[in-house]
Amino acid sequence: MIEAVGLTKRFGAKTAVDQLSFQVRPGHVTGFLGPNGSGKSTTMRMILGLDRPTSGHVTINGRPFRELPNAQRHVGALLDAKAVHGGRRARTHLLALAQLSGIPEKRVDEVLGVVGLQDVARQRTKAFSLGMGQRLGIAAALLGDPQVLLFDEPVNGLDPEGILWVRNLMRQLAAEGRTVFVSSHLMSEMALTADHLIVIGRGRLLADMGVQEFIAHNSAGFARVRVADSDRLGAQALGEALVKAGGQVLKEPDGALRVTGLTLPHVSDLAHEAGVRLWELSPHRASLEEAYMRLTQSAVEYTSTEDPRAELFEPEPLTVPAWEDEGAHQVSGPTAAAFYAPPPPGAAGAQPFLMPSRPGDLAGTATDPEDPR
Amino acid sequence: MTAPTPRPAAYSSPLPTPRPHLGHAVASEWTKMISVRSTVLTLGALVLLVVGIGLLAVAQTSAENFSGTPFTAPALFGLLVGQLGVMVLGVLTMTSEHGTGLIRTTFTAAPDRHRVLTAKYLVVGGVGFTAVAGSVTLVALAGAIVHHRPGAGRHDIPGELLDGLAGSLYVTLLGVLALAVGALVRHSAGGIAVMIGVVTVPPFTGAMLSMWEATQPAGSTLIRYNAPVALMQLFGLPNTDTGAIPPAWVHFALLLLVTGAAVAGSYLVVGRRDV
């Protein structure tokens, strides 16, 4: 169990981590997400007592890290795969770490086997690839067989097989009842690995919820309806029927309709009643990746002047069809949130995801399944 | 929390959980020191320099050269260069961890940082003293075996060997000071530069300051109190052109004062600093 309360770190005028409060529970893989420079690594370093917080505190199993009696046996961490002396052999590196806490030497060979480095154990680590370095770092984290594990970007530099291995390892470690806290900037990876997500941007907490909940909150679904091309009037008629039934309709550039607020069978029934032939009626889910980008958009620190993410976003100018009267496309807040991916935090309007105003709020929301949105 | 999965009971490990103590950290530091080429080469170079130059000096001298001069004297020539090896060893023990980022792994595994730092001091001190004292004693014994003849006059060999050990201790203290400097500056090149400066700059500065009457007192003080002069004196080759020679213990006290301050500073800084 990792518990942070009001964690803040300032470097001069720059606030790297701002009033961050969260809990990481045992038995789950908790993903720690945020864009580059959002304060993930600083937070991890504060958890591990490497940096001292400007204010606030963080405890592991109820104690500050530096007061744990045998830290290595309680907490294992991979912070930086390159944080080894390149001139030292892999096994000696681990041996020196093991000796530091009186961990038996046979454990070194065990963890080398776990991460699959037994064949290169006697090589100097400067010849290691980034992936091998990550495995060595994971081996170091596992040395003390700890209850709490922290991994900072563990899949960086791994091949697909390695990524799968890390994913399974994390899940297995959590299934054994350990606390597993994994940082990443890849939403797609975390969606597959984590049970719970903590999302930060610019050092602030953006979301703290289960993965399923996060998906439900932050990715919007819609139905795409395509009326037969030959049936121009049919499209008009169907659109009016849909709006009358309480749906919201936008027109895509190629003439298809995006419908929200109505279930697929209901749309089908309406089309049948209106006597309109459909060529397509399909459910769509905005990707989690996109939802995450929207969520962290305003929190991204370093952006290219030529924004490569542009192509990932939906083409913006969706036209409001003729049958929607003037005011109709002023869709209400919650509907808009469901239709588009939610606006970035700080934007005016509804709050599409959990954003505690006080650190104390979190303890309540994190445990409450019916979170008060 | 939406995850419906039952939460397993907290994990408990079958590994023994001893409370880590200084001995563990010393074992770890020893492993670190002997498992990297740079430190092993530094130590090797130190021993080779002291023993090599020392034996060469023994071979090129006659018994008469040792009348009034202790048999440890030949070791001094190598040691004046070899002391750099001890200092480099001291600096590298700390800065190689900072340079590679290993320090974060180390302090994550052992958040009681003072235990690690103490272990480093012990290992550098122990290894440095063993290497220097061993080399010096070897050279002194060689000198005694070859040149202990009537021409060399009277010699108190155990006493001379003890003086050699005192000289080795002085060099070891320089290594400890180097480790403290390494912990303070956290940079290999910077730390080594500082240490070379500490050892080599005072004699030159003293000589330059002695040029003018106004700065002459400061200059002569610097010339009398510095590391090379102290070493020469400890090895029985006092530099007599500088006037009144301070007793050996003054040199020791001076170095102990500087080293003590730097070591205290290193404990203070390493304990608090973000790494």
UniProtKB/TrEMBL annotation, chain A:
> Keywords assigned by UniProt?
ATP-binding, Nucleotide-binding, Transport
Tell me a Gene Ontology molecular-function term this record carries. Answer: ATP binding
Q: Which residues form the ABC transporter domain?
A: 2-227
Q: Pfam families this protein is in?
A: ABC_tran
Would the keyword Disulfide bond be found if you checked this record's keyword annotation?
A: no
Query: Per the record, which residues fall in region Disordered?
Result: 326-373
Family membership noted in the UniProt record: Belongs to the ABC transporter superfamily.
What's the name of the protein?
ABC transporter ATP-binding protein
What does the record give as the organism's lineage?
Bacteria, Bacillati, Actinomycetota, Actinomycetes, Kitasatosporales
TrEMBL record, chain B:
Q: Does the keyword Transmembrane apply?
A: yes
Which domain of life, per UniProt? Bacteria
Tell me which InterPro entries the record gives. aa-tRNA-synth_I_CS
Task: Report if keyword rRNA-binding is assigned.
Answer: no
Instruction: State the UniProt keywords alphabetically.
Output: Membrane, Transmembrane, Transmembrane helix
Q: Which spans are transmembrane here?
A: 40-59, 71-94, 121-145, 165-185, 192-212, 248-270
Q: What is this protein called?
A: ABC transporter permease
Natural source organism: Streptomyces antimicrobicus
